[in-house]
Fold each of these.
Amino acid sequence: MLKIAVLVSGGGTNLQAIIDSIARGDITDTKIAAVVSNNPGAYALKRAEEAGLTTKCISPRSFESRELFNQALTDYLVKSGADLIVLAGFMVVVPAQLISAFKNRIINIHPSLIPSFCGKGYYGLHVHEAALKRGVKVSGATVHFVDEGTDTGPIIMQKPVEVLPDDTPQILQRRIMEQAEWKIMPRVIDLIAHDRVHIKDGKVYISQEGD
Ligand code: GRF
């Protein structure tokens, strides 16, 4: 049984997609051990409570320094017994000690086709604003492992989504969530739960069922 901790900051639609996928049996052999938010007002926490999950708010504002926050977050996640950390709209720079405590065991969803529109400053609606400004005809979402860089870790899965002429950043954001994010994040978690995701020389390989 794969134990996951889901880290959130906002609306939590990706968290909801994971909860629903477990309930439907699209993700199997997986349990959400904890949902952690840096933001006490995150609607994602309500979704987690409604699903009967363990929730925890760890806010940087409750600590005297960033270092103390980073340590508290890392300590909590280590103690939670999670095997995998899922960043589902977590708007906090992931502490270095967390990355080393969970090497190749942290995944993130980014709302573009990496390496386009990613890296520092590309978060939330900024990603979709940049895609529309450049005039790309296709965008999408990427699930990747988290390393020390920003959106630089090994890519696990991507899904393209069409950009339409009248799109606003909000409309494109929603289409990418519906058509890509809410599908590939649950899919990747299920693959990891069944030990089908492997990294070799910085690249991800997905093995066939039963391999
Ligand atoms: C998503 O667009 C995700 O790609 C990005 O943050 C957003 C989170 O949305 N990393 P939600 O909180 O899951 O609704």
Amino acid sequence: MSFTRPSVALLGATGSIGTQTLEVLRLEGDSFDLVAIAGGQHVSELAAIAREFHVLRIGVAHECDREALTDLVDVDVDVVVGPAGLTQLAQSADIVVNAVVGFAGLPVTMAALAAGKRLALANKESLIAAAPLVANVRSTPGATIVPIDSEHCAIHQCLASSAQRAGYPDVKRLLLTASGGPFRGWSKDRLATATKHDALQHPTWKMGPKITIDSSTLMNKGLEVLEASALFGVGADRVDVVVHPQSIVHSMVEYVDGSIIAQLSRPDMRLPIAYCLGLPERFDHGWGQLDFSQSMELSFEAPDEEAFPALALAYAAARRGGAAPAWLSAANEVAVEAFLADQLAWLEIVPTVAAVMDQYVDDPLSSLEDLMENDATARRLAHGILQK
Ligand code: NDP
Ligand code: MG
């Protein structure tokens, strides 16, 4: 690492990515200075992190938690609240880890890039919803996005072989791998019986509830197609999905000469998290190390787009552009929340999103206000459909 310790803001510190980022920071304590954290509801966990890492700037989602948090930390801390608080914290460190879930992560992405920071991005929803706006703030001097999402982190590494020209003309396509989720191979009839318990059993990754459900519907992979397109400036028609149940090949880049470069490791999110923090250095922890003395099978198959229509919805949103991806992501958040609250059957999640998308009217997405309006409209329509 460099001689000066980069400062880190970890926003979404209490979640799955947040917790694994803290594990990396514990091991690499001399390399980084954690200066700010934020979370939503888990106030006592936030306080415990603040005490352990001596963090003095903390964000919470709700004003009513400010006092409890201040009492729990027991030293003089600066508590900031809500989206404005996230904005402040995202401007306050050299590296900003956006590990917030859902559209709530938008202020982090926008503020970190506008302030010229390195954005270690797990929160795909903000990039997908705000892609045209993110493209503008990304040109701020110093601003850079390094993806934590394992597939995109793999592609980031595989693209090191490219001539690095805009739009990557030497790249034929990006190949996103997908585990296929817990329902891979299930028939439509069987999918009608899928329960919350079934949907929360991801075969290879342990993640937060929202992305686990998105993985079960393959909406996560659909969102990742949009994420890859926005991140790397490659049209979604050059992003393909390959089902790879072992989750060892994290994604691939196919070049125009037929060469395919892949990134392999055991599935362990600490690897992409550490990659994003340490770039251009790597840490010597061997988290993803594979043992080739043991036989290992790597298999690949096409996704079942009939049983999992979320993928086609995402490609359609990519073709429409503008606010369509924001609608897709917002409607999906509402449907997944309803499913997790036992108000919607698993089989109805994606049709709910599709019914919202049927009402989408083209909007080029010109401003943040425009995005907030589009997000609110998509959510209102989704709630309306759920009430019916
Ligand atoms: P979790 O649900 O485990 O954690 C979400 C985090 O966001 C928690 O710290 C939560 O705080 C915080 N949060 C929620 N709402 C707010 C808010 N309004 N203000 C501030 N903080 C808030 O999710 P994951 O860690 O699984 O996922 C986080 C992001 O990373 C998602 O966008 C996901 O798609 C992406 N991702 C995750 C992967 C994984 O392996 N988990 C892999 C690839 C991408 P609290 O708990 O205190 O309420
Ligand atoms: Mg992923």
Amino acid sequence: MSNRYAKSYEIFEKAKQIIPGGVTKARVPHVPGRYPVYADKAEGAYVWDVDGNKYIDWMCGYGCILLGHRYKPVDNAAKAQIDKTFMTFLASPVQNTLAEMLIADIPSAEMVRFCKSGTDATSGAVRIARIYTGRDKIVRWGYHGWADWAVSNFHGFDVGVPQVVRDLTLTFEYNNIDSLQKVFDANKGQIACLIMMPFETELPKPGFLEKAKEICHKNGAVFIMDEVRSSYRMALGGAQEYYKVTPDVTALSKSMANGYSIGGIVGKKEIMEVITKGLFSATFFVSTLEMAAAIATINIIRNEPVIKHIWDIGEKLQKGLKGAVEGKGVNVKVVGAPPMPFVQFNLEDKEQNEKFKMEFYAEVAANGVYFHPNHHWFVSYSHTQEHVNRTVEVCEKALKKAISICC
Ligand code: PLP
């Protein structure tokens, strides 16, 4: 274990005695012993671990930090709401202000319901589709959270999920419209919805999202876009605005409140209204702390060049990384949309690939850049050209080191 992370691993060892796994699944030490585990503080584009090491943070709380850590205007709006109260049993008119903003900005939004997380939003959207169509089966593609239906047939994570739920949850191959058509053909009149991320590290082929929507509608199913990750990053109106494909229903969360815990479902009035027949309610759904933060965040996105900036920085980062890691004799590729970039390691030998990746990321972290080895990264409004330059420099060095150790 590297001394650089001594405090992190001391805490981790203690945590494992009182918290199963020590941390939540996605936060396990990415390179055991050679990667930070616990954060102490964050500001702007930086995060500091408990050992006092400073990093350029490209994980941004897994996408929920859009403007930068501890962004004053957002925190001040949240504090002002605390001073008034943010949690009563009554709902608050603050929800109307925020709902009107989503309706104005997001192409598919005619009506809105709020919740607290991405899993809330995607699960609520699926519930709506089942009520609307009276059907049980669903088709999903991508990561949608931790709910039973969402982890069904998802990379072996469906332990603990009843077989009946797995049987109702179908999936298909991204960017392969025939594979989606086959699923619908084999389940005629039974599918309530297709819920899918618009993209992950692979971007949609021209016409793919349009055709997916068309197949849904031909089969009487609801087309749900899971924009939990892509909303407020691809465009003010999300990936649906960017790709000009308007879904029936959309799940939102993450960056809409710059780190405060909120989610939302938006969609066609006729479909959204069926939600009142079922239950989509929770104690904390009415809390206005996060709504106030979302209003402040969206006002900044509307009035400042936030989206332009994250695209610009993302493009520069991707360009710099391509020069630093591609064509160096190992199969490494820069992928993803510029506001959510990623570097893929595709060495033929799986074991060597894993070792190579670990050496690369250990070196990157040792030089003050924080990434996730397996999930794409996020650009924020606080990242600058200077952060890009340093990151590219560190990645170039890390690649050389990984090559010298593994190849
Ligand atoms: N949908 C997508 C596309 C996500 O990336 C995530 C979380 O990473 C979720 C849904 C689930 O959101 P949460 O973790 O807030 O429940």
